[in-house]
């Protein structure tokens, strides 16, 4: 069975975190789908086909599908990814269906991965206290409710968290290893040509 | 004056290399435009508005404009970037107007930056022998005509080359430093949260 991953995206998503994770999963042979989460707080819903996301530094990406709780559950995918970017992460973490999705993946023992401000979804979904990291800019919002770490990638059972664009490769390679094994991780890592002495 | 950068994109461009470079330049305050290069060898030209590029691992990106030699010259921009991805780099390096553009930027002493298979454009544009690097997969096509290096980033006057997705952050930060100075480079680098002991 080919592992399957769902990567959320919204207006304001950090495009490097989204792209590094999605691309690295595809390199690992993971069947990967991006789903566009609408900002429900605006009251104005988009119905463009395909949807388009304007990311945090202006790159516009066409997601594969619209996010829909019924189509995105843990029966469909092995991994749920929530990238950062302040505005995109706010849209996702405040979205009631994303909160429900996070809880369902955790309960079904599927992987949930959050990076940068994406870690705010661990709080809004009311996950249990456990080790977690995030972008330093949202540490103050998380350190009361979690065992806050400053490691580049934190694996706490099936919750994987990371810090920012600079840790996104290590985050993505960790996800490939957890889904596909360490041999595939090394096969993916080599052709990416990291500088000598890269610490992962 | 705000520095200006033009980043080329085509079907098959490596989306991490494109996105890391574009996003990092924007973080540095560089006015950055992406231009879609059509595969002229196919004989079928696209005229979608906006154009869309299907990148090497399936991420679809909406470029800002179509590439047009008259609108993309060294009077308009301070930096030209040619990302990798085998198919995208082939489209760019074989495109006569891209070859002409590379020569014009070099002659006008503007910056030209190539990463991964994008370095093939240095050969197709017939640049002078000088230090250069590329993805290892295209080393054999370049080592006769250039002083081939395996450094992560090679700066040879105004030609900057690099190796792959794993060296893209170091490449992009080098471009920010050359356009905006070392203080801005450090201001951009900090919030990206690289792992401890990252070698750049």
UniProtKB/TrEMBL annotation, chains A, B:
<dbReference type="Pfam" id="PF01965">
    <property type="entry name" value="DJ-1_PfpI"/>
</dbReference>
<dbReference type="GO" id="GO:0005739">
    <property type="term" value="C:mitochondrion"/>
</dbReference>
<dbReference type="GO" id="GO:1903189">
    <property type="term" value="P:glyoxal metabolic process"/>
</dbReference>
<dbReference type="InterPro" id="IPR002818">
    <property type="entry name" value="DJ-1/PfpI"/>
</dbReference>
<dbReference type="GO" id="GO:0019172">
    <property type="term" value="F:glyoxalase III activity"/>
</dbReference>
<feature type="domain" description="DJ-1/PfpI">
    <location>
        <begin position="4"/>
        <end position="177"/>
    </location>
</feature>
<dbReference type="InterPro" id="IPR029062">
    <property type="entry name" value="Class_I_gatase-like"/>
</dbReference>
<dbReference type="GO" id="GO:0005634">
    <property type="term" value="C:nucleus"/>
</dbReference>
<dbReference type="InterPro" id="IPR050325">
    <property type="entry name" value="Prot/Nucl_acid_deglycase"/>
</dbReference>
<protein>
    <recommendedName>
        <fullName>D-lactate dehydratase</fullName>
        <ecNumber>4.2.1.130</ecNumber>
    </recommendedName>
</protein>
<dbReference type="GO" id="GO:0006979">
    <property type="term" value="P:response to oxidative stress"/>
</dbReference>
<dbReference type="InterPro" id="IPR006287">
    <property type="entry name" value="DJ-1"/>
</dbReference>
